[in-house]
Design goal:
By secondary structure, the protein is mainly beta. The protein has one domain (2-142). Helix content is 7%, strand content 56%. The chain contains 1 helix and 10 strands. The protein has one helix at residues 39-48, and strands at residues 2-7, 10-18, 24-32, 60-69, 72-81, 91-92, 95-96, 100-112, 115-127, 137-142. The strands form 2 sheets. It has an 8-stranded antiparallel β-sheet, with no helix packed on it. The longest helix is centred in the N-terminal third of the chain and has 10 residues, at 39-48. The protein starts with a strand and ends with a strand.
Amino acid sequence: MVALRRIDEAVQLGYGEDHLYGSFYAFGADSLNSLADSDALRESLEDSGRIYDLQKTVAGIALFAVLDLEPFLVSAEYVGASEQFDVADLEFDGDGAKPAAWHFELGYGFQIGDFPAWAGAAYQKSVGSVGLGLPESRVLAAL
């Protein structure tokens, strides 16, 4: 299935397909007219009172891919600014920030008795995002 839609101030293009035996894949891209409207950035700018006084509107892009080959799952995501923010809006190392973040995840589904269970590991990385409270990198594990 191919999807192209406009959501508020964004354009989203994606493709996904189900296959036999429960496998699935999908990938897509989003174009954001204002990265300041993303959850983490909006919250940070609202907390500082700068959301209403932005000097410059910065567009963003988001990419994603998912491959589900039951019982295994692999996913990747990226979101980032298309250019630097004005230093008055979002600063990083004395200049305007150009935040970006990545997320990679591996998972395995299984049964414990009659109950479905999931084990997973993920790696996250961000650049130019310290002012937003995002870590430079993080490793996660879950069961």
